[in-house]
Specification:
This protein has 43 helices and 33 strands. By secondary structure, it is α/β, with parallel strands linked by helices.
């Protein structure tokens, strides 16, 4: 990996990154400037003012209508010289100013939206300048060089400042020297730096897989071969990879879906009020007033009838204050969310609590995150001015959180789960003869004398039986730490002698820092090797293979090769301290692998029964370390790897007291456990052997590849001897301590005859806070959707850990059926040239069999049946181990020969206890267990908690058991890693993972969650008949497979794909396509993903809003930190700079240390937007009521009950203030029990009926009462005038008669509205102000039912909304003040007539008694409204939890 080129310095690299980002931003701004010159669909003018734009708050049609109204009012003022018109110019000026203000605000806010991501990018550039000036990074500040690979974190080996570091992907720049590991995806366009194996192929493109040529590809061989390790190659980056993601963000920033609240606003104000009600109202008023003008004398001047009156009717339907109010409410709501978010982020965590656990809804009360006005004001100003550091306009986080239906998580490791897998089960074998002894030896708890006596007693006892039992110890992960473990069985220490070799192997091999570099290179090598085996790589992740050094475009690479994880905590629980490694010195590291036959998955009965074409079987490999005991100078070979190849290398097992020969039944137990657990977990086997052979240094520089069928070479290495235990301890007879291992064949023989220790299964554990969040989201009818990159089995198991549904119709694979079929066909060919595009074989062929070369040739030319010889032939060829059933006089010299003195191995008494695991989880079956009776199985000792049987041979009939036991000794030494009886007789579950229930539950629950008994099958299952359910076909679901089949299924079958919580086999393009389908079917999606994943940018941009989560980085070992922090003066860490780049489009970013509750933010958003919806609904109803009142007055031939000034006052001051106060209602946590609707606004018959029943009925009665009060008041005034003037009264219009000088009488010519508009204008103005006051009073009373929409008045006091209570008082006072001023301004010395004091008392009683009656009437209406909403919520919850598909009642 060394390179003579120095590489870039940090200062140079950040400078280049700055330049490239600035150049890309400049290109984008130029393109945007060209686009904004016109009125295209994405231009600022279009989005701000076009009548079809859902984002427009003030459309051009509204502006034109208001300007027309201004012109009409001016014409009326100029044409008619009436004192009542003297304030029209002021009204026109106010309307004009509001129009200009609205136009500017809407344009300004839309411009901020268009420039938001550009401003965010400018902020990044400013931050990069600061980082460039202050960054002084060293190697320790970067992630560990050998950090385990994680699909959630994209890192690249890069040369910076003269050192090779593990650089975050987004910090790569053109000119960087990167080191591509074999099998790694290319981060960007690059070319070979020097003469490498791929230097003649030119450039590699982003997304290609670096795959250097392998030695002797396609060559058949029958003996171990030495393979030269594929090492990382230096390449020169030709482009900055982050620029691709930046361009995606800048181009897609304006393409997010319109929120449902914007749609509701447009439908209510722009469509209903402006498009429908406004034209109808204007036409009606014009028709009515025209008829009145021509056929009646009870009208005013034509300017008032035909100009001012239509303007007064139309003015409320184009609310002047709506744009400003809508923007202010949005800014305020976003500021509230951001204030809560930042306040919770700054809260100090309790050091006793889990540092990675986010705040919970129950634990974080409202009072604990109460907002300070200073913080709220600060964020409000930043939001209004567009200076918030996160995008809030391109993705309105307030609207999306309030309406979200799907929370989609696209990353698992470090986000949903802890970053490292932890041990879940420990498997080992135990001799039945030692059960009684082990249960009576208290020395395992510390009494060494009794242990010594027990050991002597065992040695002196007769030879124990060869039967073994499988012991399975379960462990529980401590949720307080990333690696904490504890055995579930409180009596686990009785197996301490069996566990100690395992713990030592872990410390010397798995968690040995000296082995990390070698293991990393070996993983890269076999990753490249695994590309030639289609049973290990999903076909969707493969592509055509080139020649020599091919590069392939693979979207997502997930090859199950190495699963080594830190097991230090397990060793610590067993009793080892960190000093246990000190007495040992690493001598050598040996790595072994072999390919899998191409049809292994097809021949395995388990694989066939699962109906999964592509199961990811772990790549067979073994890593061995040769350790020297510094005290005794003895050598110990410690091995770990996959169970198939480990088991091939073992001839015995350690049972805690002795080494015992591995029988065929033992091998079958081990392989059965391994095969099943490796499908859904990570299973590692461990073995060891003492040796005295010295390995030459050159063998550490090569890897050993075994033939696909290594049976014959293992047979040759397993030469029977009369004393296998001595041979295991002191090596083969052909090799002494004076000999050196100098070739690959000798190295292979040295690794044979090992002693099997046990196996450990590891699994990723779901983070507790995520499990709790998912449960809370489910209660809120928000579907948590996991887009898993893993296959169906692994994904299903982890989804159960998270609490997702694991039953029927709960997951869909996005891997297409076409790809599966092609993969199956290609793998079934079994020919060495099945990958025809590459010219390479998928596996290397062996040219020799155990007995016959001819047989071997025909075997490898045929399908996998050639690998599976008949049982008789195998036993004939492998019947050389009968001599192993001999005396075991030296068998006591096994793992106890390892120097495990007290100074090195200390058992710690104080072990953390997990609160929820107090019962035993050791898995056994007792002798009389009814589950075993039908299989003729027996357990010799103890209860069901003392033994577990995994031998499938016990499932056979009793007549076959004797025959099998006779042949077991002769078949011990054969290679079990091929398809053996163990796999032929394994459990057969015939079901499709997506389609059937019972079999999957049986498979998963038996083998993963509650492995608490023998896994045994009945005889008819042995014969291949799957366990079936009654009427199984009736319950078969029809789920699509493959992203291309999702949409046709939704169109033609049912909507089940929108109801599932798990999608498997996901790639970024498939995930993005599925998100698009969800949005097309009106789902509101939030994407939550890792801030360190290079593939998440396109997913972040596809969602309605995106949330980034800083992943927990996986650790090589719990004792080694991922990176070291530095002082703040040296600037942020590389990972922090990379996070700021990757989270550019994310509205919120979460860190594991933050005490931020996403559920709480959703609750606040839901409540706030529900109140905003109530606000705009109340506003719209009030405006329509004002218009309706004027229409009714015109129809009733009344003079205008409201002047144009009154209408302007009510619609611009009173109604907005009263409506906005509804938003200030205290947060109601019960909103989280409600289901939000989809992102669609329907207008149908049911909606119109709902509006009529629950809105019209609340307002129209009050409008009628106001009309009656106004009309009766005018009639009363008319009668008073007639009585004073000694005249008559026609309807409500007085017939005025005046005396002239000569004593005659003359009828006065009216000056508008038969005198109401002239001589008695004061009286009409008094009536208008009285009507306006009643309107305000009734609106205040109606608003009582809008404060708490879902609660009756007696259940939730509206006075809890203090802002509303204050606003009611304020608007009433303001209206009184306004009326008083208006009356005083219209009072002239020459005017006479009645005033409000002349209104009869009974009419006052009617006017003020009605509000008292109005409240209970509206409460009755609201009661029915609540019932309707409750029924809707019940239906929505039922639909949310129903996945019946075609059989669904929906």
């Amino acid at each position: 990996m060394a390179s003579n080129v120095q590489g870039l310095s940090t200062y140079e690299a950040i400078g280049r990154l700055y330049d490239d980002i600035a150049y890309a931003l400049d290109d984008h701004l130029k393109a945007e400037a060209e686009k904004d010159k016109g009125t295209g669909e994405k231009s600022i003018l279009y989005e701000a003012f076009h009548h079809r734009s859902y984002l427009s708050v003030f459309r051009w049609t509204s502006a034109v209508a208001l300007i027309v109204e201004v012109v009409l009012l001016l014409v009326a003022y100029i044409t008619c010289n009436d004192p009542r018109y003297q304030y029209l110019p002021a009204e026109c000026f106010f309307i004009f100013v509001m129009v200009i203000l609205n136009i500017y605000l809407v344009w300004w806010d839309t411009r901020l939206r268009h420039k938001e991501l550009s401003k965010q990018t400018l902020n990044l550039l400013r931050d990069l300048k600061e980082v460039q000036a202050s960054a002084a990074w060293c190697e320790e500040n970067y992630p560990h060089m050998h950090s385990p690979l994680s699909p959630c974190i994209t890192l690249q080996w890069t040369k910076r400042d003269g050192s090779v570091v593990n650089l975050p992907w987004s910090l790569l720049v053109r000119g960087d020297i990167i080191f591509l590991k074999p099998g790694q995806r290319v981060p960007a366009r690059c070319k070979a730096l020097q003469n490498t194996v791929c230097s003649n192929l030119g450039e590699l493109q982003m997304g290609d897989i670096y795959s250097p040529s392998l030695d002797d590809v396609g060559e058949g061989f029958s003996s171990p071969k030495a393979r030269t390790p594929l090492k990382p190659s230096p390449y020169l980056l030709l482009e900055t990879p982050y620029i691709t993601n930046l361009r995606i963000a800048l181009m897609e920033g304006l393409n997010r879906p319109v929120t449902v609240f914007n749609k509701q606003r447009v439908k209510l104000f722009s469509f209903a009020m402006e498009t429908i009600i406004l034209p109808i109202s204007v036409v009606l008023i014009l028709v009515i007033n025209t008829l009145r003008f021509h056929y009646s004398s009870w009208v005013g001047d034509w300017t008032e009838v035909l100009l001012i009156s239509p303007v007064s009717v139309a003015l409320p339907l184009i609310p002047l204050g709506l744009p400003l109010t809508w923007l202010l409410l949005n800014w305020l709501g976003i500021a509230r969310i951001l204030t809560m978010y930042h306040h919770a982020k700054n809260m100090q965590s309790d050091p006793l609590e889990d540092p990675f656990e986010e705040a919970e809804l129950e634990a974080l009360q409202l009072s604990e995150i109460s907002m300070k006005w200073s913080e709220l004001r600060h964020h409000f100003v930043l939001t209004m001015l567009g200076k918030e550091p996160s995008p809030i306009r391109t993705a309105n986080i307030l609207h999306v959180l309030a309406s979200v239906t799907n929370l989609c998580c696209v990353d698992k490791k470090g986000v949903l789960s802890w970053p490292n897998p932890t041990a879940e089960k420990v498997f080992f074998l135990k001799n039945r003869a030692h059960n009684i002894l082990s249960t009576s030896v208290p020395s395992l708890y510390g009494d060494d004398d009794l242990l010594h006596e027990a050991t002597i007693e065992k040695i002196a006892s007769p030879q124990p039986t060869k039967e073994s039992e499988s012991v399975l110890l379960s462990l529980t992960h401590d949720r307080q730490t990333a690696f904490g473990l504890q055995f579930d069985d409180p009596m686990w220490r009785r197996y301490l002698l069996s566990l100690k070799p395992l713990g030592l192997n872990i410390l010397l091999n798995t968690c040995n820092p000296a082995t990390q570099n070698h293991y990393t290179q070996f993983c890269a090598h076999i990753t490249c090797e695994a590309m030639y085996n289609e049973d290990l790589v999903p076909v969707s992740q493969r592509s055509s293979v080139g020649h020599a050094c091919e590069h392939r475009h693979i979207v997502d690479m997930d090859i199950p090769v190495c699963s080594r994880g830190c097991l230090c905590e397990l060793a610590k629980q067993i009793g080892f301290t960190e000093q246990a490694q000190v007495p040992f010195e690493l001598e050598h590291q040996l790595s072994t692998f072999r390919h899998v036959p191409p049809d292994m998955a097809c021949k395995d009965r388990l694989a066939k029964s699962l109906m999964i074409t592509k199961l990811k079987f772990p790549f067979p490999h073994m890593v061995s370390v040769l350790m020297r005991d510094r005290a005794s100078q003895k050598l110990e070979l410690m091995s770990q790897g996959t169970a198939d190849i480990i088991l091939d290398s073992c001839t015995d097992y350690w049972d805690g007291y002795d080494i015992c020969p591995l029988t065929e039944k033992d091998r079958k137990k081990i392989l059965d456990f391994y095969h099943r657990t490796s499908l859904s977990a990570y299973c590692t086997a461990f073995s060891y052997r003492p040796t005295s052979c010295v390995v030459r240094e050159n063998l550490s520089n090569v890897y050993m590849e075994l033939p696909i069928d290594p049976t014959h070479i293992y047979n040759a290495a397993r030469t029977p001897t009369p004393h296998i235990s001595t041979e295991a301890l002191f090596g083969d007879e052909g090799h002494t301590e004076y000999e050196e291992i100098d070739d690959i064949d000798d190295a292979f023989r040295m690794q044979c005859k090992q002693i099997f220790i046990g196996m450990v299964t590891m699994q990723y554990q779901a983070k507790t806070n995520m499990v709790q969040m998912i449960e809370q989201l489910d209660d809120s009818c928000i579907r948590f959707v996991h887009f898993s990159k893993e296959n169906e089995l692994r994904s299903r198991v982890f989804s159960e850990k998270m609490g997702l549904e694991s039953g029927w119709n709960c997951h869909i694979s996005l891997l297409s059926d076409r790809t599966r079929t092609e993969s199956g066909n290609s793998s079934r060919v079994g020919q060495p040239t099945s990958a025809k595009t590459s010219g390479l074989t998928l596996y290397r062929q062996s040219t020799e069999d155990v007995n016959s070369p001819d047989l071997s040739k025909s075997k490898f030319r045929s399908s996998f049946k050639g690998f599976q010889r008949s049982k008789s032939l195998r036993r004939k060829g492998l019947g050389l181990r009968s001599s192993l059933e001999v005396s075991r006089t030296l068998s006591h010299s096994a793992p106890s020969a390892i120097n495990l003195d007290v100074a090195q191995v200390k058992f710690e008494e104080e072990v953390s206890v997990c609160s929820d695991s107090s019962h035993s989880q050791t898995s056994y079956l007792e002798d009389d267990d009814p589950r075993l009776e039908r299989y003729d199985c027996s357990c010799q000792v103890g209860t069901s908690e003392e033994c577990m049987i995994l031998a499938d041979d016990d499932h056979m009939c009793h007549a076959h058991s004797d025959q099998h036991s006779q042949s077991s000794a002769h078949s011990r030494s054969r290679s079990p890693s091929r398809v053996t009886d163990s796999t032929e007789h394994s459990t057969s579950f015939n079901f499709d993972m997506s389609n059937r229930i019972g079999n999957f539950k049986r498979f998963i629950s038996d083998w993963n969650d509650s492995f608490d008994g023998a896994i045994s099958l009945s005889e008819h299952q042995q014969d291949g008949y799957p366990p079936t359910m009654p009427n199984e076909k009736e319950y078969e679901a029809q789920l699509p497979k493959g992203i291309e089949n999702i949409k046709p299924h939704l169109e033609n079958v049912d909507n089940v794909p929108l109801l599932v919580s798990l999608f498997t086999d996901c790639t970024p393009p498939a995930t993005r396509a599925m998100l698009s389908i969800m949005q097309e079917y009106t789902e509101v999606t939030i994407v939550m993903g890792s801030s360190a994943n290079a593939d998440n940018m396109m997913l972040f941009m596809q969602a309605d809003a995106s949330l980034s989560v800083d992943p927990l980085y996986p650790q090589v070992c719990m004792r080694e930190p991922v990176y070291s922090r530095q002082s703040p003066s040296k600037g942020p860490l590389p990972t922090e700079v990379a996070r700021s780049l990757n989270t550019l489009p994310c509205s919120l970013s979460f860190h594991p240390d933050d005490k931020v509750s996403l559920v709480h933010l959703i609750m606040e958003s839901r409540h706030y937007m529900q109140q905003v919806v109530s606000c705009i609904q109340f506003w719209a109803c009030c405006c329509i009521s004002i218009t309706f009142l004027q229409l009714l007055a015109a129809m009733a031939a009344l003079p205008p009950l409201l002047s144009s000034g009154d209408v302007l006052w009510l619609t611009c001051i009173i109604v907005p203030v009263l409506s906005i106060s509804l938003v200030a209602a205290p947060t109601n946590p019960c909103v989280m029990n409600q289901a939000t609707g989809k992102n669609v606004v329907l207008l149908n018959k049911q909606i119109f009926q709902y509006v009529f029943l629950y809105y019209v009925c609340k307002f129209v009665p009050s409008v009628v009462v106001i009309l009656l009060c106004g009309g009766i008041t005018l009639a009363t005034f008319c009668m008073d005038i007639a009585e004073q003037q000694n005249s008559t009264c026609y309807y409500i219009y007085p017939d005025l008669v005046t005396n002239v000088a000569n004593g005659s009488t003359k009828t006065e010519e009216h000056c508008g509205w038969k005198g109401w508009g002239g001589h008695h204008n004061h009286s009409l103005n008094a009536v208008q102000n009285g009507v306006a006051f009643l309107i305000v009073l009734y609106f205040c009373m109606i608003s009582v039912s809008f404060v708490h929409r879902m609660y009756q008045l007696w259940k939730r006091n509206p006075l809890t909304n203090k802002w509303w209570a204050a606003s009611v008082f304020v608007v009433l006072v303001l209206q009184i003040v306004y009326g008083s001023i208006s009356i005083s301004l219209h009072s002239y010395s020459e005017t006479t007539g009645p005033s409000l004091a002349d209104v009869p008392i009974w009419l006052w009683l009617i006017a003020f008694v009605w509000p008292i009656m109005l409240i209970p009437i509206n409460e009755l209406i609201k009661r029915r409204e609540i019932r309707v909403n409750v029924r809707y919520q019940k239906r929505a919850r039922l639909e949310f939890g129903t996945k019946l598909g075609m059989n669904s009642p929906f």
